[in-house]
Amino acid sequence: MTTVDLSEYDVPGRGRGILDVLRWRFLLRLLVRKGTATRYRNSALGWTWSYVKPLIQFLVYWLVMGFIFGMDRGLENFPAYLFAGFVAVNYFNEAFGNATTSIVDNRALVKKIYLPRELFPVAAIIGAFVHFLPQLAILVLVVLLYGWVPSLMGIIAILLGIAILAAASLGLGLFFAGLNVRFRDAQNFVDILRMLATWASPVLYTWVLIRDNLPEWVLYVYMVNPITIAVELFHYGFWRPTVGDWHGFPPHFELYALGAIGICIAFLLVGQAVFRRFERSFAQDL
């Protein structure tokens, strides 16, 4: 009997999770390119929508929160503050939402061939980042009008904020992408979380309001939220250089940031575990 060495072969469906994405980089690039190319297919304005939609949303929030509710009083350069936080949360919401539906949206590929299923959520995160760049460009133009001068620490804070948003959205996206194939209610729950993300982080208001109006333990929970930390890092990088009197980070911000990073790591580990648990039946459930 001839013995065949199977050591060089992979067992279908039992890859190395997110680590396999590095081995399939070419396919990852194709998925990202496909997502960006088809986003505005048959649209007259095309990529212009990547600028128009966030600008309209920002103007609505600015009108309501700034002029009607008077949040701009006592907060210097409120439009820059608002837009910096708004852009950060927008990236998280789009990345999280796209990652959640990535398996269902690519059901044709999932049912026909084997490939690391993690490619789809990762491609969704990268695709959301590509569409985040036009909003980032508008933000830079806005803060430049207010006298923004970039600094090394500010750039590091912005990059760290982006990394936290990407890690949180990928971890949660893996978790809910796996659930969403079996239980389509997961997508509705994600829509609720995305809606709450703007209000559960200091985008439309400052963290000082949480400190002054709610119990102290609420501030602790609020500050370890990865979205809160990312938004504050965006404020530090974009808004702080434009103001003379800055209220500063909350006390022990470094510890809160470490806690938020730990939560992101937990999201990734739990999300990967749940995703691998459900991926065994993706083809059947789809």
UniProtKB/TrEMBL annotation:
UniProt xrefs under InterPro entries: ABC2_TM, ABC2_TM_bact-type, ABC_2_transport
Subcellular location: Cell inner membrane; Cell membrane
Pfam families the record matches: ABC2_membrane
UniProt keyword terms in alphabetical order: Antibiotic resistance, Cell inner membrane, Cell membrane, Membrane, Transmembrane, Transmembrane helix, Transport
All copies of domain ABC transmembrane type-2, residue ranges: 45-278
Membrane-spanning intervals of the chain: 51-71, 78-99, 119-148, 155-180, 192-210, 217-236, 256-275
Major localization class: membrane
Its membrane topology: Multi-pass membrane protein
PROSITE patterns xrefs: ABC_TM2
Listed name of the protein: Transport permease protein
Species for this entry: Microbacterium album
Lineage, broadest ranks: Bacteria, Bacillati, Actinomycetota, Actinomycetes, Micrococcales
